[in-house]
Design goal:
The chain is an alpha+beta fold. The chain contains nine helices and twelve strands. The chain folds into two domains: about 170 residues, 2-Layer Sandwich (Ribosomal Protein S5, domain 2), CATH 3.30.230; about 130 residues, GHMP kinase, C-terminal domain (Alpha-Beta Plaits, 2-Layer Sandwich), CATH 3.30.70. It binds (R)-mevalonate (MEV).
Length: about 325
């Protein structure tokens, strides 16, 4: 028996880094998906095949012995088959439309689709149960994850998140399109987050003022989203990028990409940790193609996405 599920990637629209210090962030699911197929096998092995490599391991291997980016899948498979009375193996196949490891939510989408596909072989779980499993799985690679990424990948649409209040859905359906460009510079989220912490410690007063400004900006964006006011959202993207520049998570290449992308779009900024990874520009049907053309002319890899309102899909 085969069980299949797919989940969307995500981007952080506003608030990365400041969210670590208690400010609200706004995230949205994007219409690029990861599909996971799981099937029972009789070889008593856990086998995972993906475009970032393969893994074959025995069930009940301690999780810290699984040295692979596919560890969350192993965790889910092992946890689920341990609960079954009958001994069995599992084969898991992963297909991704999302570039991996560039801040577009590939790991959260893997965890959500993986939890649904693997558990789906044995029993139907509720969305809340799948979310809990997915967050546990993501913790095997990002122990401090807030759970916001898995949440937006599971439910789709837009969410707001802060450390104190957790996440809640934003009930608006703005009609923008995002042009995402990949700097192809590798980055370590852990390292960039630690540099920001150092910046904060050296500049307490300035940082605290920026947190207040970021907070006001986010509240303004929530109103702009309700009104589908793309110009207002774009202005705030440009403002937010300035704060990211000040805290030191940008670099020359990212600045150049943002400058090019801002020319025709409503605004552009880094998404995620920065230091590398991706930037995005806010567009609609009138300026999307020009923005893409301009980035491609400058030899930057880019593609456009819309908000995904489907979230997790099971087949
Ligand atoms: C990384 O995608 C987002 C950061 O805000 C870190 C975090 O929230 O854990 C930079």
């Amino acid at each position: 028996m085969k069980s299949k599920a797919s989940a969307p990637g995500k981007i952080i629209l506003f608030g990365e880094h400041f969210v670590v210090f208690g400010i609200k962030a706004i995230l949205c699911a994007i219409d690029k998906r990861i599909t996971v197929t799981a099937e029972k096998t009789f070889d008593n092995k856990i086998t995972i095949e993906s475009n970032i490599g393969n893994l074959v391991a025995d069930p009940k291997t301690p999780i810290n012995k699984i040295d692979s980016p596919l560890r969350p899948f192993y965790f889910l498979a092992d946890m689920i088959i341990r609960k079954q009375e009958e001994k069995s193996g599992l084969k898991i196949t992963v297909d991704s439309e999302i570039p991996l490891g560039v801040g577009l939510g590939s790991s959260s989408a893997c965890c959500v689709a993986g939890a649904a596909a693997i558990s789906g072989i044995f029993e139907k779980k509720s969305k809340e149960e799948i979310l809990q499993m997915a967050i546990e799985a993501e913790k095997t690679i990002f122990p401090n994850t807030s759970g916001a990424d898995c949440t937006v990948c599971l439910y789709g649409g837009l969410i707001q998140y802060d450390k104190k209040n957790g996440y809640s859905r934003i009930d608006s359906e703005p009609n923008f399109e995002l042009v995402i460009a990949n700097s192809k510079i590798e980055h370590s989220t852990k390292e960039v987050v630690s540099n920001v912490k150092q910046f904060k410690e050296k500049n307490e007063e300035r940082f605290s003022k920026m947190c207040t400004q970021e907070n006001e900006l986010i509240e303004d964006v929530l109103v702009c989203l309700k009104n589908n006011d793309l110009k207002c959202i774009g202005r705030n993207l440009i403002k937010n990028q300035k704060y990211l520049e000040i805290i030191g998570v940008s670099n020359e290449k990212l600045r150049n990409m943002i400058e090019i992308a801002t020319k025709y779009s409503f605004g552009a900024k880094i998404t995620g940790a920065g230091g590398g990874g991706c930037i995005f520009a806010l567009t609609d049907e009138n300026n999307r193609e020009k923005t893409i053309h301009q980035l491609k002319e400058n030899e930057y890899d880019c593609f456009s996405v819309k908000i995904d309102f489907r979230g997790l899909d099971t087949f």
